[in-house]
Amino acid sequence: MATGRTHRPATRSRGIPEATVARLPLYLRALTALSERSVPTVSSEELAAAAGVNSAKLRKDFSYLGSYGTRGVGYDVEYLVYQISRELGLTQDWPVVIVGIGNLGAALAGYGGFASRGFRVAALIDADPAMTGKPVAGIPVQHSDDLEKIIAEDGVSIGVIATPAGVAQQVCDRLVAAGVTSILNFAPTVLSVPDGVDVRKVDLSIELQILAFHEQRKAGEEAGAEPGALPSAPAPYAATEGDAPARGGKGGGRKGPDGDAPAVMPA
Amino acid sequence: MATGRTHRPATRSRGIPEATVARLPLYLRALTALSERSVPTVSSEELAAAAGVNSAKLRKDFSYLGSYGTRGVGYDVEYLVYQISRELGLTQDWPVVIVGIGNLGAALAGYGGFASRGFRVAALIDADPAMTGKPVAGIPVQHSDDLEKIIAEDGVSIGVIATPAGVAQQVCDRLVAAGVTSILNFAPTVLSVPDGVDVRKVDLSIELQILAFHEQRKAGEEAGAEPGALPSAPAPYAATEGDAPARGGKGGGRKGPDGDAPAVMPA
DNA sequence: ATTTGTGAATATTTTCACAGCG
DNA sequence: CGCTGTGAAAATATTCACAAAT
């Protein structure tokens, strides 16, 4: 899903399925909340509800980690918090650098959820000289000229890119060259990285588009058809020509000077 | 994946698989970039590379939309942009409200990727009276007292929650009561919503945790075992007791006053 | 009595590989 | 030819349902 190319069966290693890995943080969050309320044990049913999944799935997920529950009783909260943390690698310290300190970068820097897990914001990096030295969330911003040095000195292996899309790839290249092997990308671009480097992306507008899709569906279903909008099923095989840009029409093409690519994203 | 309970076959309607829907925005972005460079056609191979997927998957995805390509040639860029936009519901205008105007909310408000698709930031809402009237990204912040009125007046059906976790559920409840049926949640909480309301979540720290998992794997593989860290396979069935919080130990339990739950997230 | 852990059944997603069309 | 569109196969993921454990 993120690794370079065909390489290993993706879900390799001791073979915890990717889908399960993606849910572990969810369970961990729910468990941490219970832990804080000093709840000693939970059943799969309760925990599943708190995490927003169904209990069969949760039990199956946990079964990949080992037999950490007690039949007839449930799971010991503290014990499970520890086991999941360990599995996720959160029992060790992960220094992280955030590159691009605009609104988003600042939000990330101040985000409590990082510090409370094994993550430590080792440095904030921005290309704007005016930002250099300015403290954001209590951490002084450093200039991107020093990127390589910072990464080497702190032994950083995880980088967060919160720059404008236009410079994301070059920032990525520098991070990778400097030794970073995991990247969380907020810029709306596909990053290409060498094999062995993991990239995960968070694209704010993609999520909205998925919502729009479902929203549209709801509107179309609610009463046969909509006024202006297309009705439910625009039969496959181009039944809906007419107001579509005449297929193959190579001429001008609409789309103002605001299309999308250089996405303004705060830097 | 977000709808209330067992209800409809999830991937219902004209039956575009969820996995495909989730990739359409990706294709759209790549196509828009091509469109801006006035590229008239693309092959599945090229487009797949630009979108970061493999070409068989892309062709399969497009096959759910209809036969929009030309054998031996490829896909007409403009035509495909239109078809995907329409499928995603982006040919109509979606007014969106953002609740919680901290760093994150401000980043979202200024995010170019919204405006460039069918999304229009109809209002920014914050509970802090000091924020009221202050323009953020050119839009004046409104007070949350007026939330219901704003949603009704603008016919908003999509809401973005960027508040602290502690108030996310109540904000959600108000949004839903006021008529919002799709929610994008950035607060690290599981929101419960009535049937028929879609929720998608973006959790910044979850993504990092998934990266940490893979990062840990890399470290463990690279040379048999690690110094301090656990080696690759902590055999199932609790082989790894010892430094774990004695199972069932109900007493104190570690965990400072910084656990996680009330997550500080900027408001 | 409960509630876990898990095989087996089902559903979904990805990938292969090639017929068919332009 | 080259490239799409798609059945069929393979791989993943989810759900069922119940035996086993406390």
From TrEMBL, chains A, B:
NAD(+) binds at residues 100-105. Coiled coil: none annotated. Gene3D superfamilies: NAD(P)-binding Rossmann-like Domain (3.40.50.720), Winged helix-like DNA-binding domain superfamily/Winged helix DNA-binding domain (1.10.10.10). The keyword RNA-binding does not apply. Residues 225-247 have a biased composition (Low complexity). The keyword Phosphoprotein does not apply. Transmembrane segments: none annotated. Signal peptide: none annotated. Residues 219-267 are annotated as: Disordered. Keywords: Cytoplasm, DNA-binding, NAD, Repressor, Transcription, Transcription regulation. Its main location: cytoplasm. InterPro entries: CoA-bd (IPR003781), NAD(P)-bd_dom_sf (IPR036291), Rex_actinobacterial-type (IPR058236), Rex_DNA-bd_C_dom (IPR009718), Tscrpt_rep_Rex (IPR022876), WH-like_DNA-bd_sf (IPR036388), WH_DNA-bd_sf (IPR036390). It is found in: Cytoplasm. It comes from the Bacteria. Residues 89-190 form the CoA-binding domain. Residues 26-65 bind DNA. Modulates transcription in response to changes in cellular NADH/NAD(+) redox state. Belongs to the transcriptional regulatory Rex family. NCBIfam families: PRK05472.1-3, PRK05472.2-1, PRK05472.2-2, PRK05472.2-3, PRK05472.2-4, PRK05472.2-5. Homodimer. This is Redox-sensing transcriptional repressor Rex. It comes from Streptomyces solicathayae. The gene is rex.
